[in-house]
Structures are given as C-alpha cells and as structure tokens.
C-alpha cells in the first residue's frame, strides 16, 4: 500500500511539473527571462534535451531595421527561437524594462495564443499554451518621453511535447533598444532669445536660422541615432537670418544643437 501511495505521489509531482508551465510561467508568478527581476532562466527547468536553442530579436520601424527608439513611436518586434533537432512545441516569455526595471514602453497587437500578463507591476508576453510555431511578431510602442535605453528580455523554449520539462531546450537573450537621441539637451527645446529656427521643416535644401544678437556661434546636426553628421563654426555673424545649406540629407527627423557664447539650444527639424 505504501509503495502504491508513493507511486501515486510521484505521478502527481511529475504531472504537476509537466503542466505547471503549460500556460506560461508568468501566470505562475515567475520571470524566467534572465532579466534583473528573474528568479532563474527557462532552461533551468527545460533542459537535458537534444535541442540546441538560440534566440533572435529584431526591431523594425516600417520596413527599416533599427536599434533605437523615438519617444511615442510604434515599432514591430520580431522574435525567433532557432533550434537544432525536431521540437514540436515552443514557448515564449518576454518583457521590456527601463533603467529602473519598470515597464519600458508597451506591447500591443499580440497574435492568438499569447497573452499580456502583469507580474510585480511589470508586463510580460507569455504563451497561453505551447505553440507549434517558433516565430512571434508584436507591436511595441516606445516610452512617451526620453527614458534612456530600454532592454527587452526574451526567454524561449523548444520542447518535445511530452508534457514534462525534460528532454527540451531553452535559452535567454537580451536586446537593448537605445534612446535614439541620448546625449542631446532636451531641456531646452523651446525657443530662446538668442537662437532659434524660423522654420522647422526643410522644404528645399536649407534650414533658416535666426539669431537676434550679433555674435559668433557654432552648430552640430545629429541624426536620430545621435551621430554628428554636420558641424561648423560661424564667425562675425551680424545678419538676422542665416541659411544653413543641407544638401544631401535624406528625408527624416534631425536635431540641431546651436551654441552661442552664452548658451546651447537643441531643436528638432524635419527634412521633407
């Protein structure tokens, strides 16, 4: 009788392990992505299998692959669980955190079979059941303001589908989405009394600047990645307007830092 009871107990434990993560580990109160909030990694349980697992993440704005964000913009995050062998099921857990380990942006438009679940005040993408596909594409809306870099943490499982956690494979990966204009002075975007842009949209090939006080000044133009693409010093400036030639700039959003003897001002402008 004791032996029968022991076998039953073992069976219950095996079933519990096998089905405890059937609907995702977030529902069980666990972060297994390897993030700073994680209690472990997905492969700590799903291991000892013949499936070699690696993870890939990419971020797109429209058709262009990027690695930085503009506040409030919408992006497409594409996840893939790469593997060796022939797994039959796949599992996902994903979160995005800012430097304070709180939600960095928000996920939207999850496909069927995935849910957005909250754990310790942070949102996670989790599968509602093991999926037969190894791909996941979701929308991600960047933070509304500049919060510094955001890191996406991704845990992925390739499983044999036997209902247990043995004989599987797993991996974790992190992906940094940089604040696309880190290092610029966003506290002085409003017009000031010394320097300002007359027209924030470049319709032809120049940007008209205006300086109300005669002085020397310099400028730097940055792209959305924060790279300096043009800079110059302007001496003995006495006219009220200065036309800055922008030949060769492709369409898009740019930032100009104008520096006088008294202050530095950063403005944004768009090349049409």
Helix content range of the residues, please?
under 10%
Q: What's the CATH architecture name of the largest domain?
A: Sandwich
CA-CA gap between termini: 82 Å
State which percent range the strand residues make up.
over 45%
CATH topology name of the largest domain, in short, is: Immunoglobulin-like
Are there runs of 5+ residues with pLDDT below 50, and where?
Answer: 1-21, 182-195
Task: Determine the number of helices (DSSP H or I, runs of at least 4 residues).
Answer: 1
Radius of gyration: 26 Å
Notable traits:
disordered N terminus, mainly beta, 2 domains, Immunoglobulin-like, 272 residues, five-stranded antiparallel sheet, seven-stranded mixed sheet, 48% strand, 1 helix
What does this structure look like?
With 272 residues, the protein is mainly beta. It has 2 domains: 159 residues, Immunoglobulin-like (Sandwich); 86 residues, Immunoglobulin-like. The chain is 7% helix and 48% strand. The protein is built from 1 helix and 20 strands. Strands 1, 4, 6, 8, 9, 11 and 12 form a 7-stranded mixed sheet that branches. Strands 3-2-5-10-7 form a 5-stranded antiparallel sheet, with no helix packed on it. A hairpin with a 4-residue loop joins strand 19 and strand 20. The N terminus is likely disordered.
Give a short overview:
With 272 residues, the protein is mainly beta.
Please write out the topology.
Elements: H1 2-19, E1 47-48, E2 53-61, E3 64-66, E4 68-69, E5 74-83, E6 89-97, E7 106-108, E8 114-119, E9 122-127, E10 135-141, E11 150-159, E12 166-179, E13 195-197, E14 201-202, E15 206-211, E16 215-222, E17 228-237, E18 241-245, E19 252-259, E20 264-271
Parallel strand pairs: 1-12, 4-12, 14-20
Antiparallel strand pairs: 2-3, 2-5, 5-10, 6-9, 6-11, 7-10, 8-9, 11-12, 13-15, 15-18, 16-17, 16-19, 19-20
């Amino acid at each position: 009788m004791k032996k029968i009871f022991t076998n039953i107990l073992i069976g219950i434990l095996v079933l519990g392990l096998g089905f405890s993560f059937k609907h995702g580990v977030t529902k069980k109160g666990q972060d297994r992505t390897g993030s700073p909030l994680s209690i472990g990694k997905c492969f700590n349980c799903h291991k000892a299998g013949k499936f070699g697992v690696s993870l890939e993440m990419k971020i797109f704005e429209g058709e262009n692959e990027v690695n930085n964000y503009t506040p409030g913009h919408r992006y497409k995050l594409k996840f893939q669980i790469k593997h060796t062998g022939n797994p039959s099921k796949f599992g996902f857990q994903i979160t995005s955190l800012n430097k304070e380990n709180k939600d960095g942006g928000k996920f939207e438009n999850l496909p069927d079979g995935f849910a957005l679940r909250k754990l310790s005040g942070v949102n996670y993408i989790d599968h509602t059941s093991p999926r037969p596909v190894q791909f996941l594409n979701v929308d991600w809306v960047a933070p509304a303001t500049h919060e510094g870099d955001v890191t996406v943490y991704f845990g992925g499982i390739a499983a044999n589908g036997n209902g247990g956690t043995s004989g599987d494979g797993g991996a974790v990966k992190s992906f940094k989405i940089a604040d696309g204009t880190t290092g610029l002075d966003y506290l002085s975007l409003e017009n000031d009394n010394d320097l300002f842009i007359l027209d924030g949209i470049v319709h032809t090939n120049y940007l008209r600047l205006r300086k109300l006080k005669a002085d020397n000044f310099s400028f730097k133009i940055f792209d959305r990645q924060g790279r300096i693409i043009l800079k110059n010093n302007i001496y003995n400036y006495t006219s009220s307007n200065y036309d800055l030639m922008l030949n060769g700039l492709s369409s898009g959003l740019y930032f100009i830092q104008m520096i006088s003897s008294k202050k530095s001002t950063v403005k944004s402008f768009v090349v049409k």
